[in-house]
Design a protein that fits this description.
With 332 residues, the chain is of the alpha+beta class. It contains twelve helices and 13 strands.
């Protein structure tokens, strides 16, 4: 076995990524301590252990794919964040507060802040490990509900990934994992990363049982027209700002769900759809007035909050019946 030192890259939005293959216990422990919890990674002295990992950190969300060849045990006295393990090959034995769970690709296991962490993967095995900062998940829940919550959120020790919203959530996690190897991936763009983080957090809260879930899935009351008007005004004033739906809900002083229902009732679309329409209109106006010798389509797209040029061009053509470059050329 030859050890390979991990290579680390960084990106926007407090991101970090690491990729390595075929390292020993000590090197793997260093990476796990950096991206997850202070953890003890144990192995029998006579055993040869090979660990591989791909890990990405997007603000409060960490997603990593770990592979194990050789018997290892991961132990942390106390989780300092929410931690979820989704086996992708083989099985893992987990223990939470005295309860033992054996999980395979059909099951996820979860630990809450303050829980002792015990994981013993089979060999060989592979798993996706997700870390969510406590403040982020609880703030996401409070934004969805429109009132403070008392944490930690009581995530179940294990939950089924084969059907329903949990199956959809697991596909979203696997999408993040699949993007790890692409340095030019959209997940490194701040706007996209923020929305993906929010989708992972809200998706988890909608996928598993906990004491707030009934309230979370109950029909929402539509926000009043005056509050919706406040949101419309700030979007029209600053459409280039990297708003999330939670940001807009705070402007309206209501829950995300009430904001969305209010927009459906009073505006006829979602808040984010209205934001994109406003950005497209501003981009169209800018391209019509711009000097094609001095301005590029990419610069205009980024000016109005579009992180991905291809998607901007597609949405622009669907809205205005022409490519952005065609509008720009007509100004010459």
């Amino acid at each position: 076995m030859s050890d390979t030192a991990p290579t680390v890259s960084t990106g926007p939005l407090s991101t970090g990524a690491v990729h390595f293959d075929s390292v020993g216990v000590r090197e793997a422990r260093d990476v796990l301590n950096r991206f997850y919890h202070p953890v003890s990674l144990g192995a029998p002295e006579s055993a040869e252990v090979v660990v591989g990992a791909e890990v990405i950190q997007l603000g409060p969300l960490t997603v990593g794919h770990l592979t194990f060849a050789g018997r290892v045990t991961l132990v942390a006295p106390e989780a300092d964040a929410y931690h979820l393990t989704l086996p992708t090959a083989g099985r893992v034995l987990a223990r939470r507060n005295g309860r033992e769970v054996t999980a395979g690709p059909a099951t996820a296991v979860a630990f809450r802040p303050g829980d002792p962490v015990y994981l013993r993967p089979e060999t060989p095995s592979a798993e996706i490990d997700v870390r969510i900062e406590r403040w982020a998940l609880e703030n996401e829940l409070a934004a969805l509900l429109g009132h403070p919550v008392e944490g930690p959120v009581d995530l179940p020790a294990a939950f089924d990934l084969t059907c329903g919203p949990a199956h959809s959530w697991s596909r979203l996690i696997r999408l993040l994992h699949d993007e790890l190897e692409h340095e030019s991936s959209l997940i490194y763009q701040p706007l996209i990363a923020e929305h993906l983080c929010s989708s992972v957090l809200s998706g988890l809260l909608l996928s598993v049982p906990h004491r707030y879930r009934d309230e979370l899935v109950a029909p929402a009351t539509a926000g009043p027209p005056r509050a919706i008007r406040r949101v419309l005004d700030i979007i029209n004033q600053e459409p280039d700002r990297p708003f999330t739906v939670a940001d807009l809900a705070r402007v309206a002083r209501m829950s995300v769900r009430s904001l969305q229902e209010g927009f459906r009732r009073h505006v006829g679309c979602t808040p984010m759809a209205y934001l994109q329409e406003t950005r497209l209109t501003r981009a169209h106006e800018t391209l019509r007035r711009a000097d094609p010798a001095a301005v590029t389509v990419a610069a205009v797209a980024h000016r109005w909050g579009f992180a991905h040029l291809g998607r901007f061009a597609s949405a622009y053509r669907a809205r205005f019946g022409a490519a952005p470059s065609e509008t720009l050329r007509r100004t010459g």
